[in-house]
Amino acid sequence: MRAAVYPGSFDPITYGHVDIIERASRIFDKLIVAVVTNPAKKPLFSMEERMDMIRESVKHLKNVEVDGFDGLLVNYLREKKIEVVIRGMRAITDFDYEFQMALTNRKLNKNVEIVFLLSDSKYLYLTSRMVKEIASFGGCIRGMVPPHVEEMLLKKFRVSSSGSL
Ligand code: ADP
Question: Domain span at residue 23?
Protein backbone atom coordinates (compact mmCIF):
# COMPACT_ATOMS: atom_id res chain seq x y z
CA MET A 1 0.00 0.00 0.00
CA ARG A 2 1.41 3.38 -1.04
CA ALA A 3 0.80 6.07 1.55
CA ALA A 4 1.90 9.69 1.80
CA VAL A 5 1.69 12.60 4.23
CA TYR A 6 0.81 16.14 3.13
CA PRO A 7 1.97 18.40 5.98
CA GLY A 8 1.27 22.12 6.29
CA SER A 9 -0.22 24.91 8.36
CA PHE A 10 -3.53 25.00 6.44
CA ASP A 11 -4.48 28.23 8.23
CA PRO A 12 -6.98 27.95 6.59
CA ILE A 13 -7.21 25.39 3.79
CA THR A 14 -7.61 27.01 0.33
CA TYR A 15 -8.64 25.65 -3.06
CA GLY A 16 -4.89 25.48 -3.84
CA HIS A 17 -4.45 22.93 -1.02
CA VAL A 18 -7.59 21.05 -2.10
CA ASP A 19 -6.22 20.82 -5.65
CA ILE A 20 -2.94 19.29 -4.36
CA ILE A 21 -4.87 16.87 -2.10
CA GLU A 22 -7.05 15.70 -5.01
CA ARG A 23 -3.98 15.10 -7.18
CA ALA A 24 -2.11 13.23 -4.43
CA SER A 25 -5.17 11.12 -3.58
CA ARG A 26 -5.20 9.87 -7.18
CA ILE A 27 -1.53 8.82 -7.00
CA PHE A 28 -1.46 7.24 -3.53
CA ASP A 29 -3.66 4.60 -1.90
CA LYS A 30 -3.80 6.60 1.29
CA LEU A 31 -3.08 10.26 2.02
CA ILE A 32 -2.81 11.83 5.45
CA VAL A 33 -3.25 15.59 5.52
CA ALA A 34 -1.30 16.53 8.65
CA VAL A 35 -1.75 19.91 10.28
CA VAL A 36 1.46 21.18 11.84
CA THR A 37 1.74 23.15 15.04
CA ASN A 38 4.41 25.62 14.06
CA PRO A 39 5.61 27.54 17.13
CA ALA A 40 7.10 30.23 14.85
CA LYS A 41 3.69 31.07 13.37
CA LYS A 42 0.72 32.34 15.32
CA PRO A 43 -2.25 30.72 13.58
CA LEU A 44 -5.60 32.44 13.14
CA PHE A 45 -7.45 29.13 13.55
CA SER A 46 -6.97 26.51 16.26
CA MET A 47 -5.74 23.05 15.38
CA GLU A 48 -9.28 21.65 15.76
CA GLU A 49 -10.80 24.36 13.55
CA ARG A 50 -8.18 23.79 10.85
CA MET A 51 -8.70 20.02 10.95
CA ASP A 52 -12.50 20.38 10.81
CA MET A 53 -12.28 22.72 7.80
CA ILE A 54 -9.99 20.25 5.98
CA ARG A 55 -12.28 17.29 6.80
CA GLU A 56 -15.26 19.10 5.34
CA SER A 57 -13.25 20.10 2.22
CA VAL A 58 -12.04 16.56 1.44
CA LYS A 59 -15.07 14.50 2.45
CA HIS A 60 -15.54 13.49 -1.22
CA LEU A 61 -12.14 11.71 -1.14
CA LYS A 62 -12.43 8.37 0.58
CA ASN A 63 -8.68 7.65 0.88
CA VAL A 64 -7.83 10.92 2.65
CA GLU A 65 -7.43 11.19 6.42
CA VAL A 66 -6.90 14.33 8.47
CA ASP A 67 -4.55 14.43 11.44
CA GLY A 68 -2.41 16.87 13.41
CA PHE A 69 1.05 16.74 14.93
CA ASP A 70 3.67 18.82 16.66
CA GLY A 71 7.41 18.40 16.64
CA LEU A 72 9.48 17.12 13.77
CA LEU A 73 7.94 15.81 10.57
CA VAL A 74 10.46 12.95 10.43
CA ASN A 75 9.28 11.71 13.82
CA TYR A 76 5.67 11.84 12.69
CA LEU A 77 6.58 9.91 9.53
CA ARG A 78 8.38 7.27 11.58
CA GLU A 79 5.37 6.90 13.88
CA LYS A 80 3.06 6.44 10.86
CA LYS A 81 5.59 4.23 9.00
CA ILE A 82 5.32 6.48 5.95
CA GLU A 83 8.29 7.73 3.92
CA VAL A 84 6.67 9.91 1.26
CA VAL A 85 5.90 13.60 1.81
CA ILE A 86 3.75 15.68 -0.53
CA ARG A 87 4.37 19.39 -0.94
CA GLY A 88 2.74 21.81 -3.31
CA MET A 89 4.64 24.21 -5.52
CA ARG A 90 3.29 27.57 -6.39
CA ALA A 91 5.39 30.19 -8.11
CA ILE A 92 9.18 30.12 -8.03
CA THR A 93 9.01 32.03 -4.73
CA ASP A 94 8.18 28.72 -2.97
CA PHE A 95 11.23 26.99 -4.35
CA ASP A 96 13.95 28.18 -1.97
CA TYR A 97 11.96 27.43 1.20
CA GLU A 98 10.69 24.08 -0.08
CA PHE A 99 14.21 23.06 -1.17
CA GLN A 100 15.58 23.91 2.26
CA MET A 101 12.80 21.99 4.02
CA ALA A 102 13.17 18.97 1.76
CA LEU A 103 16.92 18.69 2.17
CA THR A 104 16.74 19.20 5.93
CA ASN A 105 14.19 16.41 6.27
CA ARG A 106 16.31 14.20 4.02
CA LYS A 107 19.28 14.85 6.29
CA LEU A 108 17.26 13.74 9.31
CA ASN A 109 16.03 10.61 7.54
CA LYS A 110 17.65 9.59 4.27
CA ASN A 111 14.70 7.38 3.32
CA VAL A 112 12.24 10.24 3.14
CA GLU A 113 11.11 11.13 -0.39
CA ILE A 114 9.52 14.49 -1.04
CA VAL A 115 7.11 14.64 -3.96
CA PHE A 116 6.31 18.09 -5.34
CA LEU A 117 3.02 18.57 -7.11
CA LEU A 118 1.88 21.54 -9.17
CA SER A 119 -1.59 22.89 -8.61
CA ASP A 120 -3.74 24.25 -11.40
CA SER A 121 -2.33 27.53 -12.73
CA LYS A 122 -5.37 29.44 -11.45
CA TYR A 123 -4.15 28.75 -7.90
CA LEU A 124 -0.55 29.68 -8.57
CA TYR A 125 -0.61 32.80 -6.43
CA LEU A 126 -3.18 31.67 -3.87
CA THR A 127 -1.92 31.65 -0.28
CA SER A 128 -3.64 31.32 3.09
CA ARG A 129 -1.95 34.54 4.15
CA MET A 130 -3.47 36.49 1.28
CA VAL A 131 -6.93 35.03 1.87
CA LYS A 132 -6.76 36.06 5.56
CA GLU A 133 -5.62 39.55 4.65
CA ILE A 134 -8.42 40.06 2.13
CA ALA A 135 -11.03 38.65 4.53
CA SER A 136 -9.79 40.85 7.38
CA PHE A 137 -10.55 43.94 5.27
CA GLY A 138 -13.95 42.62 4.24
CA GLY A 139 -12.88 41.77 0.67
CA CYS A 140 -14.40 39.00 -1.43
CA ILE A 141 -12.65 35.62 -1.16
CA ARG A 142 -15.17 33.60 -3.17
CA GLY A 143 -13.45 31.06 -5.40
CA MET A 144 -10.34 31.04 -3.21
CA VAL A 145 -11.62 28.86 -0.37
CA PRO A 146 -14.56 26.44 -0.02
CA PRO A 147 -17.82 28.09 1.16
CA HIS A 148 -17.62 26.69 4.73
CA VAL A 149 -14.07 28.13 5.08
CA GLU A 150 -15.30 31.48 3.79
CA GLU A 151 -17.99 31.39 6.47
CA MET A 152 -15.44 30.58 9.20
CA LEU A 153 -13.23 33.47 8.07
CA LEU A 154 -16.15 35.91 8.04
CA LYS A 155 -17.16 34.74 11.51
CA LYS A 156 -13.62 35.02 12.85
CA PHE A 157 -13.16 38.58 11.61
CA ARG A 158 -16.66 39.65 12.66
CA VAL A 159 -15.98 38.43 16.17
CA SER A 160 -12.51 39.96 16.28
CA SER A 161 -13.67 43.36 15.00
CA SER A 162 -16.43 43.44 17.62
CA GLY A 163 -13.74 42.95 20.25
CA SER A 164 -14.81 39.54 21.62
CA LEU A 165 -11.70 37.69 20.45
P1 ADP B 1 3.46 25.79 5.32
O2 ADP B 1 3.10 26.70 6.43
O3 ADP B 1 4.15 24.54 5.71
O4 ADP B 1 4.09 26.48 4.12
P5 ADP B 1 0.92 25.78 3.98
O6 ADP B 1 -0.34 25.44 4.66
O7 ADP B 1 1.10 27.20 3.60
O8 ADP B 1 2.07 25.22 4.84
O9 ADP B 1 1.08 24.92 2.66
C10 ADP B 1 1.32 23.53 2.69
C11 ADP B 1 1.88 23.12 1.35
O12 ADP B 1 0.92 23.41 0.34
C13 ADP B 1 3.17 23.83 0.93
O14 ADP B 1 3.97 22.90 0.24
C15 ADP B 1 2.68 24.91 0.02
O16 ADP B 1 3.67 25.26 -0.94
C17 ADP B 1 1.51 24.21 -0.65
N18 ADP B 1 0.52 25.15 -1.17
C19 ADP B 1 -0.16 26.10 -0.51
N20 ADP B 1 -0.97 26.80 -1.33
C21 ADP B 1 -0.79 26.26 -2.56
C22 ADP B 1 -1.32 26.55 -3.87
N23 ADP B 1 -2.16 27.57 -4.07
N24 ADP B 1 -0.90 25.78 -4.91
C25 ADP B 1 -0.01 24.80 -4.71
N26 ADP B 1 0.53 24.48 -3.52
C27 ADP B 1 0.15 25.20 -2.47
Answer: 3-121
